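Table S2 (text version). Query chain:
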Amino acid sequence: MQNLIQFETVIRELTRPVNNQYPRPFTCDFKNPLSAKGLILGYNQARTYSTDLLSHQEFLDYHFGRSGTSRELYGRLSPEPSKTRVNIENMVRYLDQPILESDVYCFSSRKASELSSEGKVIGARISQAVIAGLCPKFILVFSANSQKAFPKELRAVKAIVSEQTLPPQGKLSISKLVLNRKALNTNYEGNFETTVIYMPSLSLPEWNKWKSESLVVFAQIATILKEFI
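Corresponding structure-token output:
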């Protein structure tokens, strides 16, 4: 419980409204985000959580299980889920693991190319705080933009203690990282190890190029998780 209180305190401070939006730290369909074993990272979110729609406290109450779940909040604000959301949730169901969905940059923009420098700075801090708080056993990173930005932002804060590249499996690239929690967020201490899997994009239009092979790729990910986690 103490870990969850600390995590919420960190997220509360980082998600204060900016330009009439609450930066979204994560989405999941369970009430305790720290019960997740892993993390899925895209580049940044398209859905804006407007300050006109709910208070910051209401926003936090959904994310920390007091008013349902963060996925229920997404459904309240987005009755029609995006194709990316559908693909993420299909993969999570296949993997049958408690997983948080987040982004390298936890800040919304209509298109990834429209994400501002301020949004990147704020969004990276939130993403890194989520990683530091959760200490995920695995991180799935999808899309070429995300796969460039993720290690770049880790190196920018000198969070990588050690890195081991493992043999690729099909469309998947795999690394073992030891990360320093304090470098990610100063409220935390110590190091932890995680397996990072770089996978094809779950977003359109790239998804269309490999969707016929998606079950094969999901099965490969499941095998890797059993082997390395």
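Notes on Table S2: The longest helix spans residues 117-134. The radius of gyration is 16 Å.
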